[in-house]
Amino acid sequence: MNSRRVAVTGLGLVSPLGDEPGDVFSRLMNGQSAVREISFDGPKRHTNVAACAPFDATRHFPPQQRIEHLDRVTLLALAAAAAAVADSAIELDDDLKRRSGVSFGTGMGAANALEETFAQLLLRDPDRVKPLTVLKVMNNASASHIAIRYGLGGPDLTYSCACSSSACSIGEAYRQIRHGYADLMIAGGAEAELTSGFFKAWEAMHILAPRDGANPAASCKPFAKNRNGLVLGEGAAMVVLEEWEAAVRRGARIHAEMAGYGSSNDHQHITKPSVDGQARAMKLALADGGLSPDEIDYVNAHGTGTILNDVTETMAIKQVFGDRAYRIPVSSTKSMHGHLLGGAGALEFVIALLALRHRGVPPTANLELRDPECDLDYVPGQGRAAPDIRCVMSNSFAFGGTNAVLVARRA
Amino acid sequence: MTTFDKVQTIFVKKYDLPAERIVPEATLESLGLDSLDLIELLFEVEEEFNIRVPQEGVAGVRSATVQQIVDSVDKLVAEEGMPAAGGR
Questions:
Q1: A130 in contact with chain B, both atoms CB, cutoff 8 A
Q2: Contact B88 A135 (CB under 8 A)
Q3: Is A20 in a helix, a strand, or coil?
Q4: Which residues contact B86 (CB under 8 A, 6 or more apart)?
Q5: What is the pTM of this model?
Q6: A144 shares contact with chain B (CB less than 8 Å)
Q7: Beta strand ranges found along A244-368 (DSSP E)
Q8: Would the CB atoms of A127 and B88 count as touching at under 8 Å?
Q9: Exposure of A97 by Cβ count < 10 A (0-12 exposed, 13-18 middle, 19+ buried)?
Q10: Residues on chain A touching B49 (C-beta within 8 angstroms)
Q11: Please, are residues A219 and A49 in contact by the beta-carbon 8 Å criterion?
């Protein structure tokens, strides 16, 4: 099989902790949380906690861009893609454009437009919805707008597998390049579903962390004894992946080598996670990259903060790493940026790459009460220096059972 | 305000076109509107005049002139107003 190396040459974020990767990383290292209270007015006012992305579309798009044609998820995605492309400093000529593509992940897609559409139909006029609703809510809208924006004629694919959507999209993009179907891919994902209706849907799952009365910012407590659910977040993260030799030839700044991807399914239950399924994805990612467990120096955990996820993931990490599991820093940055759902995998992969670049591992915030069943080194409270960090792993596990694990090596 | 004035205002507001370009004989194509702009235009026209353009009535609309749109609107408004039309 044709097997080429893949470089990560661009990073782009629109996140609850900010848009500039260096700033985002230092906030993470300090254990700063973006989780806040959020209220919805309506027939019945309700308040939740969430990590919103402070995003002003008018700052990112020229006045002539018809932003009302795009759902928030697409606006976030386009802004993150623009940041990633700018960071890569790539110049796309016509030949390269034909060999370049987009790989995108989202769980719920255009949640805002969808909710607005139903509100319009049910509350205002049962006969009328906005004219371009279909083009706004189709799940591939974001990927296609990115492809149109940069004139990319290669694969343009959207993956939707709940909370591993954008880890899959990056992994699949890496395969497109590795196996010779494309030379460059803009890959990542986005989620923007902080709407009244979607909050109610998540509440009905009894899976959201209640507001921490003393400190709402500390509501998400992954791996802690008193963890009690996840906190929703929103945002987008995109990377530029390039064929290694081409990236070297053009003198690109290479953030890291995308070294491996593992994909598996739990095949047992629509929500209940499986130790074996998660471990299988981690092992596949290591094998794909030709790496031994000894080479991984940081794991960005899926770490949602639910009772079941964190103990299952802990067991899976032990199955893969054996005794070394206790010596690898494993952290859940969701404690600070919330759960970006379909955008989570991409954001956390970028954070893992920033850990390589800045030679430091971010912490798990709000981890004060230890759980005997979660007994790894979760880097509680504050980040720490990691001068010898070589390879990093980012875990994403999803409702529906799709597990996606990405591995990167210091360039 | 005549039907023409109202249609002209929609063009100006929705597409940032100068009012002097919205003349009766201008085709939508010549105004630089693409197929999606037309779908939106129809929606705005429907809202403004409280009419419904039939699903099948859209073919060929790009080559229509502003005057033809105005005439179609007047026709639909008249039909909507007639009890015999049986409502929507």
A1: yes
A2: no
A3: coil
A4: none
A5: 0.93
A6: no
A7: 256-265, 296-300, 330-331, 360-361
A8: yes
A9: middle
A10: none
A11: yes
